[in-house]
Amino acid sequence: MNKDVHPKVFVLGDSRTGTTSIHRFLLGAGYRSIHYYFKESGVIENSESDQLINVHLTDNWARLKKFIDDSGFDAFSDYPTRTYYKELMDAYPDAYFILSTRKNVEVWQRSMTEFMTKFGIALDILNLSNIYVELNERIRVLAGERGVRFCEINIDDDNSKNSLILSEFLELKEVLQLGRENASISYDVRLWSARSSMFNIGEGDVITYVEKCCFPHKGMLSEYGWVFLVNDSSDYMRYLFGQLRWTEAQLQFAMGTLKSRHASLGQRGCQYLKFVIPEKSAIYPEYLPKVFGGMQVDKERPAQLLMDAGVPGFSYLADIFHDAKSLGFLYFKGDSHTNWLGAFVAYLHIAERLNSSLADGWQKAPIGFSQLMPKIAGYEGDIAAQLPEDQARIIKTTWGPITPEGVFEYLVSYELPNEARKAQQVAAPKEYIDSLGERPLLVFENGESNLPRAVIFRDSTSDFIIPLLAEHFSRSVFVWHKGQVYDDIIEREEPDVVIHIMAERFFSEYKVFPPFSKVLPSNLDSDIDRERVRTETRSNEKGVVRKLISLMRSIRAKS
């Protein structure tokens, strides 16, 4: 569906008639939809008794019309849409108009009373009922007189029936699932986790429904105030819950890739260690949206299969993280990555595996937790910034009283003090920077020449691990890898160990990844160039102003 050309949609139903469900349906259909938008539109909200006559009619309509035309939204539900049904039908004759209702006025009265009472709102339900019935009838009559595209659904009817009606009315290419959102029974204002209702479809494909509700955004808010990744290119949620699985051939291919690396590097006298950092949703499924509550995490997802197979040098840290949950939260609430505590847990495991694989004399005791400096830090989060508009609004309303200003959360950071650091950042070879482009490349050298050399292929899951891990090597090169292992960098650096750290969601692509790739220019003599790279690096070291390690520790953290 081309959202730039299709007609607008106006949902004219009253409160408690399924407008939130239809809003989520429209999001799934590809519309940019907004629900209950007085604040965004600038329309002045009237008291209940004014809903029919609207005392600010002229000024409000001008504000609403401008918002509809300029906001970029193309679907509008709940108030102020309902109040201006006549003006909307006149101004947008080609639009789709949907009137949502309840089975009868008694059902609507009961829903209104139950819902509003939970929030301490007193209602003149008899007066409101008269307005509800009269306004619905006016909308029906005017739609017939104007000849607009009009559809009426009773939200109490079977979901499958309503899904078909809406899909056919909007001329969608497929029948989409209509949910059961915002039911009064879902709310319990005593509980923070029950003050908002996020996703509810009853029977149906939960993952597809939630993905469509959030699309094209990658953030997914849960009732517990946590944000999780959705709509990622790796389809991780489907692997997490077993909707996608590797075939036996894909499993064997991935195992072959890792075994080939381990054997090939071993022949060069180099250790290969692969670490997969679990996704937050695999470690904290209890904080996913409640709609996932009946689904079981799949024990045959790709990383777990490789761990169970005992592939040499491979480590999936799910068991480590589950065991460490009692220490405190290991992931940011609004980010896909581990926080400082989670990064330290991962570092300890990596350091222990590293020491067990290295020859005598190269081992270095892991940095102790007591050696780190704690401080309060604020953190916004990569996926909190990618929430759909309606879910971002819930953060500011439902969770607003306990959400810090300007950040998503406050927590404790744990960092190695500058005076305790021996590994210092040095200039990266120009060839590396030119070849890797915008992908970050970090090089450290340590005064302890008896330590091994390392190349570490990593992604953003390693941001807080880097300054700790660098202490274990005389020279360490951290390469942003996009899942690849670059053999030409390994050849030039001649490391004693290659470490590969990556997020679990990307690991699902190992069904097609080759053992090695190349990234550097191929028209240079490797032996001559290798020596030149080393000479340049060491000569540059003396003249390079050491960059502050804090830039690496947390680009987004705010102390």
List keywords for this structure.
elongated; 7-stranded mixed beta sheet; periplasm; alpha/beta; 5-stranded parallel beta sheet; Rossmann fold; 21 helices; 559 residues; Sulfotransfer_4
Task: Please explain how this structure is put together.
This protein is of the alpha/beta class. It has a domain of 175 residues: Rossmann fold (3-Layer(aba) Sandwich). The protein is built from 21 helices and 16 strands. The strands form four sheets. It has a seven-stranded mixed β-sheet with strand order 9-8-16-14-15-13-12, sandwiched between helices. A five-stranded parallel β-sheet has the order 2-3-1-4-5, sandwiched between helices. Strands 6-7 form a two-stranded antiparallel ribbon. Helix 1 packs across helix 8, helix 5 crosses helix 6 and helix 18 packs across helix 20. The chain is elongated. The two termini are 44 Å apart.
Number of strands: 16
What is the CATH architecture descriptor of the domain at 9-183?
3-Layer(aba) Sandwich
> CATH fold name of the domain at 9-183, please?
Rossmann fold
Helical fraction equals 25-40%
CATH homologous superfamily annotation of the domain at 9-183: P-loop containing nucleotide triphosphate hydrolases
Q: Which segments are poorly predicted (pLDDT under 50) over 5 or more consecutive residues? A: 48-53, 523-559
Shape: elongated
Instruction: State the separation between the terminal residues, measured CA to CA.
Output: 44 Å
